[in-house]
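Hi all, long-time lurker, first post. I run a small reading group and we've been trying to get comfortable going from sequence to structure in the token notation. Rather than ask abstract questions, I figured I'd post a concrete chain and ask someone more experienced to write out its structure so we can walk through it together at our next meeting. Sequence below, copied exactly:
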Amino acid sequence: MSTSEKVVVVTGASQGIGAEVVKAFRKLDYRIVATARSIKPSHDANILGVAGDIGDPATAQRVITEGIARFGRIDTLVNNAGIYIGRPFTEHTAEDYAAVMNVNMAGFYHITQLAIAEMERHSGGHVVSVTASVVDAAHTGVYSVLAALTKGGLNAATKSLAIEYAKKGIRVNAVAPGITKSPMHAPQTHETLGAFHPLGRMGEMSDIADAILFLDRAPFITGEILHVDGGQSAGH
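-- Answer (accepted) --
Happy to help. Here is the structure in token form:
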């Protein structure tokens, strides 16, 4: 199958890493279903924007239903949507917890369930989730409990799903970034944040997009947590 016939769903697609992933897949002539709360309609007929809260099951249903109606199939799902709230553990509020669980966990669960069900119809597909390197290597002064709870859970779910669906031709992987230059981080913080990585710099959004594309084109890789973190998870 040529890439011009393949369809990828990207969550959290309106900015940052998600927008970079959309751009990277489009360069390879994939057709794209892009979703985010603030997604705008695209002038490109091969990009379908679906706006909504990805943690809402109704949004997930619309993304898959409208994607199939427009393009006929779903080949790849990129679970990129995620939020980070950095506070000391005892200062987190119930609202913090609910917001992170809604996007990071419910946002993964509902759309992945629907996408895999569709992939089963075609006996093949790929799910790749963007998690976080910090879940494997906590740093003093970096408040990461909610990230560890949710993104670490996605790493574990990645391996479980990879085994459950291997014989059905569906691969499941994850990319675990380090700290990446995105709208989340002000330019004046880049030098300080870069020092957290043994390679001495922050990651670029294109580094994450390239890793996702690599996994999508690697048919013998499943259950992999690919760290794209400048050596952060290996040690300090």
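A couple of things your group might point at:
The two ends are 43 Å apart (CA to CA).
Residues 94-122 form the longest helix (29 residues).
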